[in-house]
Design goal:
The protein is of the alpha/beta class. The chain is 43% helix and 19% strand. It is built from five helices and five strands. A hairpin with a 2-residue loop joins strand 1 and strand 2.
């Protein structure tokens, strides 16, 4: 399965693992805008571009979707097409906004330590970092 558990209630991976993660009780949020097949109805979809140029409102909606599920006691599977960029960066952003890590960089290091295929693009990180700073009041 193309999913890696980062924390007890956070996993990151490819959208191809949505069904398997759902069967295990995980709630999925997919950040891919370039899928080759439809997502199941139970998977939330917040499409982001793979790279820079994402709308701050969509980035914030994605972060709030993850943190909201955590607040409700759910385990969250953050996914995108390959599970290498958008899913990892959005999971890291949610970790930072929720206070699970102090900085986005720390969250990315934690994710990279558990999922070695992460290759976050600088342009995606810059888009997300600006939103994280605003949400944290920095």
């Amino acid at each position: 399965m193309n999913a890696h558990e980062i924390m007890d209630d956070l996993a990151v991976g490819s959208f191809t693992a949505v069904e398997a993660m759902h069967a295990r009780g995980w709630r999925s949020i997919c950040f891919a805008d370039d899928l080759d097949r439809p997502l199941p109805a139970y998977c939330r979809h917040v499409p982001l571009i793979d790279g820079g140029g994402n709308c701050a409102i969509q980035v914030e909606q994605g972060i709030m979707a993850i943190t909201g599920l955590w607040r409700d006691g759910h385990r969250v599977f953050s996914c995108c097409r390959h599970g290498m960029n958008r899913s990892a960066v959005m999971a890291a952003a949610a970790m930072t906004v929720a206070g699970r890590t102090l900085w986005l960089h720390d969250a990315m290091k934690m994710i990279c330590g558990k999922r070695d295929v992460v290759s976050a693009r600088d342009t995606t990180l810059w888009d997300v970092l600006a939103v994280v700073k605003r949400m944290k009041g920095i």
